[in-house]
């Protein structure tokens, strides 16, 4: 958790209010009610947090599969299967790179993406 927090520029205790890391990986534990008011906004927040969090923690070497993001959206009750791809495409060039399409789509956070995720994490942990 300390590695993740350092990469996102937040205190470890702040990261622990939003994430849990165990042998099964990274888990988003923030209440769904704290996420954006629209499904699109919530999906984008989840994508930012999951991609940057997994990469900052070293769970994904470089790229994070869209299936991982989709699964967290479903777990948090923020799934939108019909529009998921359209929503997450808006992250490309906005702190993240996207490659592939459909089930093969993958994400990579850059410095801006890690910074955005850190700011969002701080907001959600408050």
Point out poorly predicted stretches. Answer: none
CATH C-level label: Mainly Alpha
Average per-residue pLDDT, rounded, comes to 94
CATH architecture: Orthogonal Bundle
Order of helices and strands: HHEEHEHHEEH
Structural class: alpha+beta
| Span between termini | 18 Å
**General form:** globular
Largest sheet: 3 strands, antiparallel
CATH topology: Arc Repressor Mutant, subunit A
Q: Output the strand order for the largest sheet.
A: 3-5-4
Give the number of domains: 1
Helix tally equals 6
| Assembly level | single chain
Strand content: 5-15%
Structure description:
The two termini are 18 Å apart. The model has no long low-confidence stretch (mean pLDDT 94). The chain is α+β, with helices and mostly antiparallel strands. The protein has helices at 2-8, 12-16, 39-57, 66-75, 84-89, 111-125; strands spanning 19-22, 25-28, 64-65, 96-99, 106-109. Helix 3 (39-57) crosses helix 4 (66-75). It contains 6 helices and 5 strands, in the order H-H-E-E-H-E-H-H-E-E-H. The chain has one domain (2-125): Arc Repressor Mutant, subunit A.
